[in-house]
Design brief:
- With 87 residues, the chain is mainly α.
- It has a domain at 21-76.
- The chain is built from 4 helices and no strands.
- The protein is globular, with a radius of gyration of 14 Å.
- It starts with 5 loop residues before the first helix and ends in a 15-residue tail after the last helix.
- The relative contact order is 0.18.
- InterPro entries: HD/PDEase_dom (IPR003607), HD_domain (IPR006674).
Length: 87
């Protein structure tokens, strides 16, 4: 098993959405992003349901899609900087 940074090491895999791709999405984030960015993505997932509840949107939120959107929202950002002419 890989060693994850602090936020990821405290995220029990049992708490992941039951969608079969959830573990793959988390593994992709942790393998492709820096630990700082991966932790940011996991924190986004942890806080997003709280925000939805605060805004009374829990009935409208698909938790699996929310997980995918938050955990994968920064995939490729670092890698694509050269594609836009950045040094």
């Amino acid at each position: 098993m890989r060693t994850f940074s602090m936020a990821l090491s405290r995220t029990p895999r049992a708490a992941l959405p039951s969608a079969p791709w959830a573990t793959d999405a988390l593994d992709l984030t942790t393998s492709e992003e820096t630990p700082t960015v991966a932790n940011h993505s996991v924190r986004s997932w942890i806080f997003a349901p709280m925000l939805a509840e605060n805004k009374n949107l829990t009935d409208e939120v698909d938790e699996s899609l929310l997980f995918a959107a938050t955990v994968l929202h920064d995939i490729g950002v670092r890698r694509n900087t050269h594609a836009h002419g950045a040094p």
